[in-house]
Structure formats: structure tokens, C-alpha cells
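Chapter review: from sequence to fold.
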Amino acid sequence: MSTITKKELIAELSDTTGIKHADVTLMLEAFMELAVMHLAAGNEITLRTFGTFDLRVAKGKIGRNPKQPNSEVMIPDRCVVRFKPSKELKSRVASVPVHHVHGLNGKGEHPLNGNGRHLES
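The C-alpha cell string follows.
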């Protein structure tokens, strides 16, 4: 697997639709700006058959500076964007052969465990 950039998506959309590259760029930029604006206003964005973007509150926690592990810093509550995939997207992704996904270990598990920390090797 590789990372697909915005530039590559624009080129593919332009090639697929026959819409000029500049027009696709304007549309994608406008979509992203509107999405940010609506999320910042506390709105949910639902794209049927794709998924839903919404805001959640990430609870504050105590953080530590790795260079000064004895000093604690309070990280306040903050808003984060959450994406919830649609049933159709989940279904299509579930059919991807596990060996095609880069970063998975031999058991089909992500190298990060359930709490977001790397598994010990």
C-alpha cells in the first residue's frame, strides 16, 4: 500500500470524469474548506455510502515530556474529528485481502495494540 496524495486524487478525478484539472482542484479545495467550516461549527457531515465526520471531545490527561519524565503537564480536553465509515465502506474494505495491507503483522493484526501503543517485538 502507498499514500495517495491530494495531487494524485485530483489527477485521477480529472482523468475519470473528464473535468479539467483546475476545476477538480477548485472543487476539492472548496469541499475541504466547507468540511472544516461545518465541523468547526459543530455540524456533522454525512456522505452516504462513505461515512460520517463529526466532532468528539478527547478528555484531558496528564502528559509527560520524554526528556523530563518526572515533570507532568496537564493536556486539556479538546475537540477531535472522528470518522465513522458507512456499512458499505466497511463491507468493501473487509473484502481486501489481508496480505495486501502494509503494516499488518502475519496474524492480520495492526502493529499497534488496542490502546494505540506499539506491540513489543
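Two observations follow directly from the output. The longest helix spans residues 21-40. The radius of gyration is 19 Å.
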